[in-house]
Amino acid sequence: MSKKDLLGYGAATIADSGPYNFTTCYLILFLTTVVGMSPERSGTISSVVILADGITGALIGYISDYTGSKHGRRRPYLFAAVFPLAIGLCMLFSNVPLTGALQTAFYVVFGIMFWLGFSMYYTPYTALGAEITDDYNERSVLRTVARYFGIAGNLIGTVVPLLLVGFMTSKGISEGNSWFTVAALVAVLSGAGILITWKSTEGKENMNAPTDDSFSIPGLIREYTKIALLKPFKYLVAVIGTFTLANTFYTSSMVFFARYNLGMGDEITSAVFLISIITNLVLTPVIGFTAVRFGKRETMLASMALSGAGCIFFYFIGIKSFIIMGVYAVIFSVAYTCFWQLINAIMYDMCEVAEFRFGKRLEGSVSSVYGLVFTLFTSVATQALGWILKFEMVTEAFILIPGIMLLATALFQALYPLDEKTFNKLKKAIEIKKSGKEPDIEGLKKII
Questions:
Q1: Across the chain, what does the average pLDDT equal?
Q2: Does the predicted TM-score (pTM) go above 0.85?
Q3: What angle do CA 73, 76, 78 make, to 5 degrees?
């Protein structure tokens, strides 16, 4: 792939990490401190609207697989996602003069709109990456380049908000209007990233949609069930689920831990987020090199085990200062960087497993099942966090639970059977099968 192609695809990753981190880090905080909701009620709203992302993503991936547009299978959805994503995000961070059921309905409706736009972009975008290249290591390179844009999104979604809100409130702007302005900024930058990728990838994707008669709701259920039951995917589901729990608890409880356990101001919390982002920037080329040199599976396993053990260590020694919290952020960032850099590249390889088993390219459906798992676990974690914060178990939410979940992620990654050698053998078997011959499946039984 050319540098231009890599950069053109990667630009839209800003719209993944920016809005996602902004909402997971700050929505519950905004609803509780600005709007005045209870933690459990704001957690419930967040959980409900996130489920909408799972439902939409499940439909969009499947539909995009069977889209026969002259503009491609994935790109039309990227373009269509920009408006609902931007409007929904801005309205989520609006302090409206409503109370009771009307207030809840407002945030649920615009939360659903936001996640609808997010899934309309994210699932086809993820599937598009699997189509652009089918090379095992080139997929790692593609996601490494995309990760740099993701780091920019992290900066926009985590560090910038607290600094801008603090600056604007110091100038006499209300806290509610300050959060709305930041949400608008995140929305504009995310939309720009999506449109750059939409334009840059024109003509790059696979234009051939499957032509069989399985396009229906029963067909969707059958297809997703078959994908979910693929031998490697079952372990990948566990990897995605446990990391999602760890990440959601960590990111969503950081501001609460800094404010109420350490008495730190928001500008100091922004500094901790910045430390994380600098760590991500430093680690990204290291993880990219390690993944190509030693394998994606092995790199993921080592990173999760290291960060998980580090979290448990910090739980027992305690975090009582900004410096220690910064070190803890560095340790967690090892797992964070590795997961977001490599999980899509690992998931892409499942498309070849599905092609061998079912005889057709199903990047959208594979991405949808991945997205559905991610969404369900994020929803569960968000709901659980609201209740945990109610009982003031902030330390457990920020340190202990992430540590346990990361160690579980390492365990499931160790059980995941698809490595580079097996993948290359699988690709050869697909080509033999396409020629009408029966391939030798010795060595492939663990994955098919």
A1: 88
A2: no
A3: 110
Backbone angles phi, psi at 32, to 5 degrees: -85, -40
With cut-offs at 50, 70 and 90, classify the pLDDT of residue 242.
Answer: very high
Cα–Cα distance, 265 to 163 (Å, whole number): 11
E strand segments, 334-383: none
- Are 132 and 67 within 8 A, CB to CB? no
d(CA 179, CA 182): 5
pLDDT at 213 over 60: no
Q: What is the C-alpha to C-alpha distance for residues 92 and 29, in angstroms, rounded to an integer?
A: 12
- The first and second tokens of residue 287, run together, are 């993880």
Judged by phi (left if over 0) then psi (alpha if -120 to 50, else beta), residue 416 lies in beta
CA proximity to 412, closest of 271, 301, 273, 293:
301
Contact 14, 75 (CB under 8 A): no
Which candidate, 198, 197, 165, places its Cα nearest to that of 179?
165
Lowest mean pLDDT among 37-51, 89-103, 143-157, 227-241: 37-51
Q: What is the CA radius of gyration of the chain?
A: 21
Q: Distance (Å, rounded) from C-alpha 114 to C-alpha 23?
A: 10
User: What is the spatial distance between Cα 394 and Cα 374, in angstroms, rounded to a whole number?
Assistant: 23
What's at 289, amino acid-wise? F
3 exposed, middle or buried (CB, 10 Å; 0-12, 13-18, 19+)? Answer: exposed
Output helix, strand, coil percentages for the chain, rounded to the nearest 5: 80, 0, 20
Residue 102 and residue 39 in contact, taking contact as beta carbons nearer than 8 Å: no
Quote the CA–CA distance of 343 and 419 in Å, as a whole number.
13
